[in-house]
């Protein structure tokens, strides 16, 4: 029987494609802006937020979106011109981990018997367990994120490469940085359903890192990052379906790691496309 004859696989393909596209777009800017560590912080935030919601008795998605967007904005406010720095991330990171331990203890001692697998699904993802409504919700949310990221792509590219010149040209650098971080937070919350909080960083960073090594053109790299993320999502879902003992989230990240590793075989390391991006962002 074909995999597409199973509703759970169709739901996974539908939601996974949209989520991967959004993660690829967001991840490219994280790599370009040297903010990949932000994705790592948000992955731990997603787990803490989900556990907090579960401990209180709320839908875990409320905790996911509230925590990741809130922490992303907090990191933006603590950074310079909404660019997150390592000191701010380190401070917030330790605080989030402490909260995570607290909510994990609270959840396991009070509510784990009601939904014992919820914590595991947040850690490793549960994309094969999405219902029809959850899959379509993921598509809508990811679609909005893709449109928003593409809408701010041009000024964000300019601000990412030459912040001072962009500010002098009237680009609202700080506001743009905060909007971008909020979108990354929402993307992290949504992507947790697909690959889990532990592997979230791989979906954000690996396709974008490979795309940046494969082309110097920022717009081509942006599209390529999304395409690679979608392809790796499909590969992971196919492996997860063909080999039931392999979690699909592992397949997704394994595919991403393989593709990124292959870019080192023959391609030299490429620097940030500063000149071309600056011209593209500064013209018009």
TrEMBL record:
<keyword id="KW-0812">Transmembrane</keyword>
<feature type="transmembrane region" description="Helical">
    <location>
        <begin position="165"/>
        <end position="185"/>
    </location>
</feature>
<keyword id="KW-0813">Transport</keyword>
<feature type="transmembrane region" description="Helical">
    <location>
        <begin position="222"/>
        <end position="243"/>
    </location>
</feature>
<feature type="transmembrane region" description="Helical">
    <location>
        <begin position="127"/>
        <end position="153"/>
    </location>
</feature>
<protein>
    <recommendedName>
        <fullName>High-affinity zinc uptake system membrane protein ZnuB</fullName>
    </recommendedName>
</protein>
<keyword id="KW-0862">Zinc</keyword>
<feature type="transmembrane region" description="Helical">
    <location>
        <begin position="51"/>
        <end position="75"/>
    </location>
</feature>
<keyword id="KW-1003">Cell membrane</keyword>
<keyword id="KW-1133">Transmembrane helix</keyword>
<comment type="similarity">
    <text>Belongs to the ABC-3 integral membrane protein family.</text>
</comment>
<comment type="function">
    <text>Involved in the high-affinity zinc uptake transport system.</text>
</comment>
<keyword id="KW-0406">Ion transport</keyword>
<dbReference type="Pfam" id="PF00950">
    <property type="entry name" value="ABC-3"/>
</dbReference>
<keyword id="KW-0864">Zinc transport</keyword>
<dbReference type="InterPro" id="IPR001626">
    <property type="entry name" value="ABC_TroCD"/>
</dbReference>
<feature type="transmembrane region" description="Helical">
    <location>
        <begin position="249"/>
        <end position="267"/>
    </location>
</feature>
<keyword id="KW-0472">Membrane</keyword>
<feature type="transmembrane region" description="Helical">
    <location>
        <begin position="87"/>
        <end position="107"/>
    </location>
</feature>
<feature type="transmembrane region" description="Helical">
    <location>
        <begin position="12"/>
        <end position="31"/>
    </location>
</feature>
<dbReference type="InterPro" id="IPR037294">
    <property type="entry name" value="ABC_BtuC-like"/>
</dbReference>
<feature type="transmembrane region" description="Helical">
    <location>
        <begin position="191"/>
        <end position="210"/>
    </location>
</feature>
């Amino acid at each position: 029987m074909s995999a597409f004859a199973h509703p759970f696989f169709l739901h996974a393909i539908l939601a996974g494609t949209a989520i991967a596209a959004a993660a690829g777009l967001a991840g490219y800017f994280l790599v370009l802006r040297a903010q990949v560590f932000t994705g790592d912080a948000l992955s731990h935030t997603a787990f803490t937020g989900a556990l907090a919601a579960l401990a209180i008795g709320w839908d875990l998605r409320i905790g996911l979106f509230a925590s990741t967007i809130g922490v992303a904005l907090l990191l933006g406010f603590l950074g310079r011109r909404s660019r997150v720095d390592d000191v701010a991330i380190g401070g917030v990171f330790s605080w989030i981990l402490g909260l995570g331990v607290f909510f994990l203890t609270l959840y396991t001692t009070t509510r784990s018997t009601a939904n014992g697998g919820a914590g595991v699904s947040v850690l490793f993802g549960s994309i094969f367990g999405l219902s029809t409504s959850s899959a379509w919700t993921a598509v809508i949310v990811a679609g909005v994120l893709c449109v928003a990221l593409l809408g701010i792509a041009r000024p964000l590219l300019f601000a990412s490469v030459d912040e001072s010149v962009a500010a002098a040209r009237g680009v609202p650098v700080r506001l743009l940085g905060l909007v971008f971080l909020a979108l990354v937070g929402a993307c992290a919350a949504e992507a947790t359903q697909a690959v889990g909080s532990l592997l979230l960083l791989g979906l954000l960073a690996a396709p974008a890192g490979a795309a940046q090594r494969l082309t110097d053109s920022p717009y081509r790299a942006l599209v390529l990052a999304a395409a690679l993320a979608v392809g790796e999502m499909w590969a992971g879902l196919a492996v997860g379906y063909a080999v039931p003992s392999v979690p699909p989230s592992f397949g997704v990240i394994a595919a991403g790691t393989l593709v990124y590793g292959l870019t080192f075989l023959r391609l030299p390391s490429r620097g940030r496309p500063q000149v071309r991006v600056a011209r593209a962002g500064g013209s018009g």
